[in-house]
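FAQ: What does a multi-protein file look like?

Like this. Sequence, then tokens, then the next protein.
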Amino acid sequence: MAARETSRDGVRNVRFLTPRRGGAGIKSQNRASENLAGYLFTTPVILGLAVFTLGPALYAFYLSFYSWTLLNTMHFVGWTNFVQVLTLPLFWIAVRNTLAFALIVVPTQTAIALGLAAILNRQLPARGFFRLAFFFPAIS
């Protein structure tokens, strides 16, 4: 069955009336099978992320509470390693350099790259050559 309605702007809309029984069950079964398929496709990626990224990170955090030189046995030192690192002047120099890189070099490099991309997107003589010259190191 179809019901015809006219909206305020004069456009005719057709709305199909479906019976209440039976329709909802089919939609929920399709949705459940689509959800299951989505979970099955994402499971290997999540497992790989957990095994190869999260696992080593957690193990490194665990090892940071121990003193160990591969030749000696491990012994627990607690937060001593963190206190030693935070009191080293070299650590704070490294933090300053990292912040300078992140706040100065990265935006500057991004702006230069965007500018070059805008220039190479124009109709220029030998545009193909310049595109190849910039892109070739990425593929060789």
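And here is the next protein:
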Amino acid sequence: SARIYQLKGDTAAAIESAQRSLDAFASSVHSIETAAHQVLIRNMLGQLHMDNGDLEAAEQVLEEVLRIFPGHPTTNVLLAEIAIRRNNFTRAENHLDVSLGAWQNAPASYTEARRARALVNRLESG
């Protein structure tokens, strides 16, 4: 699985594995469950592309999630990270607003919300 390759530090194999999973979904029956699973895989694939330094590929994969679920908070955090790397701070703030709006009642211990809040703090501190 892509996650195992990722844990082993083999980003190229992880990307290939995640892409194969997405390709398999293309021919499957579409349901809420498969759509949700595709989002998880796309977010992982986007993160892997980011880790590999390919922001263009990451953005392309993640933008597809937003076509399906525009308010998906994790996807918006990942896109905010890409925007920050590209010094597009306005776009980053917009993505973070979406994420934190979805997570406004999340406990302080929730990892993804903490990640978004840390990015906001980074933007605010300049």
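Q: Is there any per-entry metadata?
A: Some entries carry free-text notes. For the entry above: The chain has a mean pLDDT of 88.
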